[in-house]
Amino acid sequence: MSNIAEIYDLWLKPQHLPKNSTIPVTVETVEIKTLHPRPGIEERKIILSFVGKRRKLILNAGNANRLADLGGEDWSAWPGLVVGLRRAQYSKDKETIIITPPPPAKTASSTPQPPAPDPQTATMATPLVVEEVELSPREAMDQFYALAGQAIIDKRVDHNFVNRLVNCGNYSTAYHELRQAVA
Asked: Which of 4, 51, 159, 166 could cross-link 26 (Cys pair, CB 3.0–4.6 Å)?
């Protein structure tokens, strides 16, 4: 089958991603290229390729910083890092791609599920408890990334350790393990 991507180096664009979904990808290569976005203008950019994907992503400063938060400042260590790609609204009429932590791993359907609670005795889901303070799942994730970022900067943990914790899919658990590692 003939494909234009075999001739031209096509870049990943927001419209290539589904709406309202984060796609997990693994960084395959990282390279620095000088691009010419407009005549007479040269910009050095970080270019990512992903395992099993044809299109490459040109990193803007925001995504480069997000990736550094997830994988460390040394971009040569990013290959193998699992991240999420999400389509987002940039302005009223423009979209962009945002690098995020990878989405939680889905459990296999063959994994036994706990029995459904009795509707007559069930209460609302209990919020996560972190440091004896009730946190929502979003707050647990925010606390995890705040601590992870500082721990990486302080060189108390490396980005591979943080990435393994992210892949567990439970930010409360990841946060507790990270706190134990930096204590």
From this structure: 51
Short-list 183, 182, 165, CA closest to 174: 165
Q: Which residue in the block uniquely carries the two structure tokens 């601590």?
A: 147
31 lies in which domain range?
A: 8-100
Backbone phi, psi, residue 139, to 5° = -65, -40
Angstrom CA distances, 89 to 20, 59, 93, 96, stand at 11, 17, 8, 6
Query: Is residue 89 a part of any domain in this protein?
Result: yes
In a domain, residue 27? The reply is yes
For residues 22 and 67, what is the distance between their CA atoms, to the nearest angstrom? 15
Give me the number of domains the chain comprises. Answer: 2
Note the pTM of the prediction, 2 decimals: 0.55
Measure the CA–CA gap between 19 and 4, rounded to whole angstroms: 24
Q: How far apart are CA 13 and CA 8, in angstroms?
A: 15
pLDDT tens, residue by residue, 8-21: 657 898 988 888 88
The answer to whether 70 touches 93, Cβ cutoff 8 Å, is no
| 49-89 pLDDT, tens digit each | 999 998 999 999 999 999 999 999 998 999 999 999 999 88
